[in-house]
Amino acid sequence: MVVGSGNHANRICLHLLLLLLFSVNVAFAGTLVTSLPGFDGDLPFKLYTGYVNVSTGNAEMFYYFIESEGNPKEDPVLLWYSGGPGCSAFNGLIYENGPLAFNMSGYAGGLPQTYYYKYSWTRAASILFVDAPAGTGFSYAGAGSGAFPVTDTETAAQVYEFLRNWLAENPDYLLNELFIGADSYSGISAPIVVKQIIDDNDAGVTPRLNLKGYILGCPRTDTDINENSKIIYSHRMGLVSDELYEATKEACNGSYTSVTSSQPECYENLKMLEHCTKDINKNHILEPKCTWTSPEPHGESVRRALEEEADGGLALPSSDPDFFCHTFGYALSYLWANDLTVRIFDWKRCDKNMSYKADVSSVIDYHQNLSTKGLQVLIYNGDHDLIIPNIGTQQWIKLLDLTIVNDWRSWLVDGQIAGYTIKYSSNGYRLTYATLKGAGHSPQEYKRREAFDMFDRFIHYWPL
After folding, report:
1. What is the pLDDT of residues 270-303, one digit of tens each?
2. Cross-strand partners of 79
3. Distance between CA atoms of 53 and 145, rounded to whole angstroms?
4. How confident is the model over 135-174, as pLDDT tens digits?
5. CB-CB contact of 420 with 435 (8 Å)
6. What is the CB-side half-sphere exposure of residue 45 using CA atoms within 13 A?
7. 78 - beta bridge partners?
8. Do strands 416-426 and 403-413 pair parallel, antiparallel, or not at all (unpaired)?
9. pTM: predicted TM-score of the whole model, two decimal places
10. What does the radius of gyration of the chain's CA atoms come to, in whole angstroms?
11. Burial 209-221, CB ≥16 within 10 A → b, else e
């Protein structure tokens, strides 16, 4: 993202505004947020915000740190950032892992209300949410850095340096177990961050980071495997016919990426297959694809949200009470951020126009390397996700050639099947793979309670 002097000034104003609105004096290298617009009363948990400078791109990385609601001195610390690329960690805080949620029932305009969500991952760990890379959320490239097209490797460098600098400013958490967490597109950069931590620990860089493992939700891992798995998944879910699938598989030799018109039969079959799924909601194949909008949006901020999220199918409430659009919740983030009591400058939930260059197509080799390091790993998918299908994730995990220690079985929440899981091991490396039944992309947004139980069991080394 290219940040000019005007936007740089806006970011400084934003930081000062946040300090004025939320700050109290505390012994912590950040600002303690005791209340938020739209939340009734004081926050029932400790939320800190702030900026950490990193040298890559002279970036100022914005974070939310929520102290564990359990035992913060002993509970693990989870670093978490979102995918996109360019999606703010606000996603995790409000929609996925954090202790806040928007009240979407009966919204009638004005400032959206938030409430305390009890099945937060912060019940079991402290979570450090970071807007990464620079240009995402409130994070920005510093003045004088010029054009800064971020790449996958630069994202990993920013996240790693941010983490090390943050821990240097907050050394009380150095001894806590550390996990790296990310979802969706950030499945590319997160394993690079993990390897960098291990390499520097092995090289004797101090302070040593107490890394124990990593957690990846619906992670993009290998471009070819991910794209091919969409075809297989579409067939298995009955979105394309047996005849079309088999004909396409034969014409394309089972490879559906980088196909051109020089392969006419494969090319035409893929066009027909694409036609079968073009009106499917790729985030959750059973939910409506919300491309409609309210005829009279509630003000300029809603119109802006509709424009910025149009490709994702943003929608306002329908007059039909039985029709619910999942992405309406995203609109509330724009309404909240642009309310006069908040007034955040040019904030986007996901910045689709940021200057980003993908320079890593596969991180399977990183996972292969990490499988020799004795880490605890959790990988999970929603089983109704056509963005990162579970089929592809299971395929690349099998390429790691790990030993199955607990074969495929269901896992339960409140006596009901919440999904399916399998556990692998190799010389102290433990990888748990899980699906969340009925969930889309990202899974926590659809099955928040079940996702908490999954995380809670994993982080405490309990069987899923």
Report:
1. 999 999 999 999 999 999 887 544 444 445 555 5
2. 128, 180
3. 13
4. 898 898 876 554 466 899 999 999 999 999 999 999 999 9
5. yes
6. 28
7. 127, 179
8. antiparallel
9. 0.90
10. 22
11. bbbbbbbbbbbbb
User: Which two structure tokens, joined as six digits, stand for 240?
Assistant: 């394309």
Question: Are residues 151 and 58 in contact, defined by beta-carbon separation less than 8 angstroms?
Answer: no
pLDDT band at 104 (very low <50, low <70, confident <90, very high): confident
The single-letter code of the amino acid at 76 is: P
Token representation of residue 337:
């951020």
d(CA 109, CA 409): 45
398 has pLDDT over 90: yes
Structure tokens, 47: 């939320």
Q: Which token pair is 442?
A: 């990202």
Instruction: Report d(CA 356, CA 35) in Å as an integer.
Output: 34
Cα–Cα distance, 143 to 146 (Å, whole number): 7
306: its two tokens: 């509709």
Q: What would the CATH number be for the domain defined by 1-223+332-464?
A: 3.40.50.1820
Mean of the per-residue pLDDT values of the chain: 86
Give the 3-state DSSP-derived string for the chain, with helices as H, strands as E and coil as C: CCCCHHHHHHHHHHHHHHHHHHCCCCCCCCEEECCCCCECCCCCCCEEEEEEEECHHHEEEEEEEECCCCCCCCCCEEEEECCCCCECCHHHHHHHCCCEEECCCCCCCCCCCEEECCCCHHHCCEEEEECCCCCCCCCEECCCCCCCCEEHHHHHHHHHHHHHHHHHHCHHHCCCCEEEEEEHHHHCCHHHHHHHHHHHHHCCCCCCCCEEEEEEECCCCEHHHHHHHHHHHHHHCCCCCHHHHHHHHHHHCCCCCCCCCCCHHHHHHHHHHHHHHCCCCCCCCCCCCCCCCCCCCCCHHHHHHHHHCHHHCCCCCCCCCCCCCCCHHHHHHHHHHCCCCCCCCCCCCECCCCCEECCCCECHHHHHHHCCCCCEEEEEEECCCCCCCHHHHHHHHHCCCCEEEEEEEEEEECCEEEEEEEEEEECCEEEEEEEECCCCCCHHHHCHHHHHHHHHHHHCCCCC
Q: List the catalytic residues.
A: 184, 385, 441
